[in-house]
Structure formats: C-alpha cells, structure tokens
Amino acid sequence: FPSRLPNVGTTIFTVMSALAAQHKAVNLGQGFPDFACDPQLLDAVNNAMRAGHNQYPPMAGVQVLRDAMSEKYQTLYGRKYDANTEITVTAGATQAILTAVLACVQPGDEAIVLEPCYDSYVPNIETAGGKVVRVPLTPGTFRPDFDKIAAAITPRTRLLIINSPHNPSATIWTDAEMRKLEELLAPTDIILISDEVYEHMVFDGAAHQSAARFPGLAARAFIVSSFGKTYHVTGWKIGTVAAPAALTAEFRKVHQFNVFTVNTPMQYGIADYMQDPAPYLQLPAFYQTKRDLFRAGLKDSRFKLLPSQGSYFQCVDISGISDLSEADFCQWLTREIGVAAIPLSAFYVEKFDQRVVRFCFAKKDETLRDAIERLRRL
Ligand code: PMP
Ligand code: GLN
C-alpha cells in the first residue's frame, strides 16, 4: 500500500547508536545520559508501585503531577496554568509534539519549522497531512531570521515549531528574540509549539526564555517538557504539555484516542520527587561543568568548537580535519577512532553539509575523558 511517509528511514540516532555498539565506540551520538538517575527518584517510583498506583490514571495524568507542574510553571516562568484544564501528561516530548501537531494541523495547512530541527517535526507534520515550510536559521550562528520567518507566513500558516535550548545547535533564544516573535505572530492566529525539553540546561548564567513568560506567545502555545531530560531518565518516556484550555481540549481529543494516558507509578513517583526543586535547579551547573570539561579537552585539537549556550550538545566544525562529508565523517569517526557523533545534516530535509557534527556531553566524566583522548589524536 502507499507509504504514509515515503521519505522516512531509520532515525540517525538509532543508526549511530547501533554502529557505536558494533564498534564498541564511545557513544557521544544519540542524546542520553550514561549515568544513573538519583536513587531517590527510583525509590519514589517504587513506593508508588507498592502503594498500589498501578491501574489507569486519569486521561490527562494524575492530579498531583499536574499540580506540581502548574506550580513549577508559575514559580519559574510566572504564568499560572490550570492543572485541570491546561496541563496534560504525555508519553515523552515525542508523543506530545505529534499529538499537538495532529490536534491543530489539517490537511493542506502550512506548518513552519526552523532548520536545522529535531528529526520528528517534519514527519509529524506530514503525518497530519500538513505542508512543511522550512525556514533556515541563520547559517553559522543558528539565530532565528525574522525576515525569513515573516516571509514564510501565509494565510494558510497554521503552526510554527520552535525549540530552545536548541537541538542540535545548542543555541538559546534571547528575551529580545522571543519578544520579536511575539510581535511577529500578534496579527496572526498561528499556533506555536515551543519544544522546551532542554529548559534546565542553560549555561553561563543565561535564563531559559520559556514561551510561558510571554503572554502573546503563551496564549497560542503548546509548551513541551520532558522529565526524561530533566531527571536523566530518557527511557521513561514521560513529559507534559502546557497550553491554554481551548488548545488543551483539542490536544486531549487526540491524546485520549492515541495513548489515552501515561503509566501511573512514574507519574506519582515524579510528582513526589518534584517537591524538592533542587535537582532541576542544579542542572545548569551540573551540565555546564560537563560542557566545560569537554570543551577544555578539545580546545587545542583540530576540532573547531562552536558555542554551546544550552542543551547537552556541543557542535564542532570538522573542516580542519577531514574532507569527508559530515555523515561519512561520523561513520569513519565511529569505526576508526571509536567515538560516535551525529552529522548536522541529519537535522535538515535536504541534506546540507556544513562540516559540522554534534557531540552529546551528557556522559560520565570518565566517558568524556575517554572520548577526548581519542579525539585529540586527530
Ligand atoms: N525534542 C527535542 C529537541 C529532543 O532533543 C528530544 C529528545 N531527543 C525530544 C523532543 C523527545 O523527548 P522525549 O524523549 O521526552 O520524547
Ligand atoms: N533526542 C535525542 C537526540 O537528539 C535522541 C532521541 C531519539 O533517539 N529519538 O539525540
């Protein structure tokens, strides 16, 4: 039968992790921590299971977790989301984003993505029957280009997806940029998906500019969070979406007939663990130390380091090392040097080679040192 997504193959993350395993390479490709989460979080989930929280939770998620997220948004970003009508627990950010896209994009609607972008956005829009409109971030700096975004908007534009801190470029949007976006969207009825899964990984004293802080954006936004990223448990696949009640109502219509709801004990466990904000408040410093260790290790190498303002990624320019394309270089690096990375071209629909690859530094210090030692040989 005709393929729904004829251009989709296996994700680059799966491909590179398999290659890394095959060659016993240090895996700095796919973004996930190689260290354990806080045992207190495990205890909290265990306690929830033993307390009998093992049947279906409410469709939108358990009350205590929605309450905890509502409080967190208010404290951190100054916006009150109603726990009952404006927050939904999802099976990770991936399901949240697909569900939000399906909820608002009708066949023929246009949806804008800013390239490079996370690899699920484009297939998600195509699944909904939408027309993908790709707008490049400024080459080299990866900053949003508002003239280009403005030029891409038409009466059919239904959706814009943004992501800060940004995967893969590790840039973060500034307050001024968020205000500019707010101004640009003001005369439109465009819906925004703000993918904020790396919200707690911002460095050098910068603040995360959540769309929740900007009334004109929050009023039209699905704001996506991931506990997998925040609590070092990417395999748990659990996150949330915060959105105004009217958007949430549409979101839940799709959600209830997609996953219906998300596993109960993790929800209770996370809600319990969230009573202490320290784990996420400490995250910027925790990851900044890792970023600095990794950058210091490569400082005198032939890799040219790009800025890493947020997320757990470090991009490097490889043009001083190799004439291979990014994709071939990542394969070669994994096989011959024993370090896996992700080519930036994987985040573009039309593979665009700019000689940049992405490393993930969400790793034990010893893993990072091992990788550095190998990379410095080049
Ligand atoms: N958005 C971005 C930008 C990501 O990097 C990721 C994780 N790689 C996701 C969404 C998906 O997050 P989750 O694992 O919670 O589905
Ligand atoms: N978000 C992770 C990354 O960018 C990978 C998630 C996945 O494997 N789909 O590396």
UniProtKB/TrEMBL annotation:
GO terms for cellular component: cytoplasm. CDD domains: AAT_like. Residues 25-375 form the Aminotransferase class I/classII large domain. The keyword Transferase applies. Signal peptide: none annotated. Its cofactor is pyridoxal 5'-phosphate. It comes from the Bacteria. Keywords: Aminotransferase, Pyridoxal phosphate, Transferase. Pfam families: Aminotran_1_2 (PF00155). GO terms for molecular function: kynurenine-oxoglutarate transaminase activity; pyridoxal phosphate binding. Belongs to the class-I pyridoxal-phosphate-dependent aminotransferase family. This is Pyridoxal phosphate-dependent aminotransferase. It comes from Diaphorobacter aerolatus.
